[in-house]
Specification:
The structure is a single chain. It contains 11 helices and 9 strands. The protein is an alpha+beta fold. It has 2 domains: 150 residues, no CATH class; 102 residues, no CATH class. A hairpin with a 5-residue loop joins strand 8 and strand 9. Helix 1 packs antiparallel against helix 3 and helix 5 runs parallel beside helix 9. The longest helix has 26 residues. The protein is globular and about 60 Å long. The N and C termini lie far apart (113 Å).
Length: 294
């Protein structure tokens, strides 16, 4: 019939994702970030593959996934999670960008200041000695008593001779995750499926943030790791430890307002001081300053 309505088939999650990914807005944005056509093509192919292999990511807002994945570009980290450098993780209907163990090690090595780095699981018996005064740890894999995991270590030695070891027990890691990770509290996500990997990454990141030299890339990595990005490219720190988060920058308008308030406070103090400390007016000649007799 001529007036019969034709119902269009509904798009599946991958069709919807590709539709927005290849939309004008996303394409313009990615062109601004990646100037080379080949680089854009590689990024798009990689992102589509990641989403196609994760049913939970397909439930997220497409532009949230897109913006989260783009955080990997300036860091030069692949987002295929099986490579262990970085990943795009579902977080409700938004997506989170997370740097993995290999990604942190790679970024640290790029500083050119690292001679040696280690990040390992510690089994029962392998922790031989700890000097609480010097912070020195001694590990020996030949002293292993069982496959029971008792903790996680990260060690770095710089070219200038500085070295540092960070060691957390399993209980330390669980306490950290319980305090700072919403997904751990919910019993879901990578903390549930890959506890050892998350524990290793957490201890390594702690070492890097507190003790290692920071390149521009590392500073960006610390800023963007574990951020949850919405469809409007607004990022929040859902799971980050406060000490790991960069302090917000003070905008010019906020600084000007603060300076104005400070000036007002200083003027108020000056007026109060003038009232209480200055002597009363004494009659005097306005031209010579000669004081009249009382």
């Amino acid at each position: 019939m001529a007036n019969e309505l034709v119902t269009k088939p509904q798009q599946g999650p991958m069709q919807r994702f590709k539709s927005q990914l290849y939309g004008e807005g996303a394409q313009q944005y990615i062109s601004d970030v990646l100037a080379e056509p080949k680089a854009r093509e590689n990024f798009m192919t990689s992102l589509i593959s990641v989403v196609a292999n994760d049913a939970n990511l397909q439930k997220c807002k497409p532009m949230s996934v897109f913006h989260a994945a783009l955080k990997s570009v300036p860091l030069g980290l692949p987002i295929e999670s099986n490579m262990g450098f970085a990943a795009v993780i579902p977080y409700g209907d938004n997506a989170s960008f997370q740097i993995m163990r290999n990604g942190w090690m790679d970024l640290l090595m790029r500083t050119g200041q690292v001679k040696f780095i280690a990040n390992e699981i510690v089994h029962e018996g392998e922790l031989v000695k700890h000097n609480k005064f010097t912070g020195e740890y001694v590990f020996d894999e030949d002293a292993k008593k069982s496959d029971k995991v008792i903790g996680y270590m990260a060690y770095v030695k710089l070219n200038n001779g500085f070295e540092k070891t960070v060691y957390w027990t399993v209980e330390d890691v669980r306490a950290h995750a319980l305090r700072y990770s919403q997904t751990y509290k919910a019993g879901s996500g990578v903390w549930k499926t890959s506890f050892d990997a998350m524990a290793l990454k957490t201890v390594l990141k702690n070492l890097i943030v507190k003790y290692c030299p920071k390149s521009t890339e590392l500073k960006a990595a610390i800023r963007d790791d574990q951020t949850v990005t919405d469809a409007n490219n607004v990022s929040t720190y859902a799971d980050n430890e406060p000490d790991d988060q960069p302090q917000p920058e003070v905008t010019e308008s906020a600084k000007a307002k603060a300076d104005e308030v400070k000036a007002q406070m200083e003027a108020m103090k000056a007026r109060r001081s003038k009232k209480t400390e200055e002597p009363e007016d004494i009659p005097a000649d306005t031209e010579t300053g000669e004081i009249f007799e009382q």
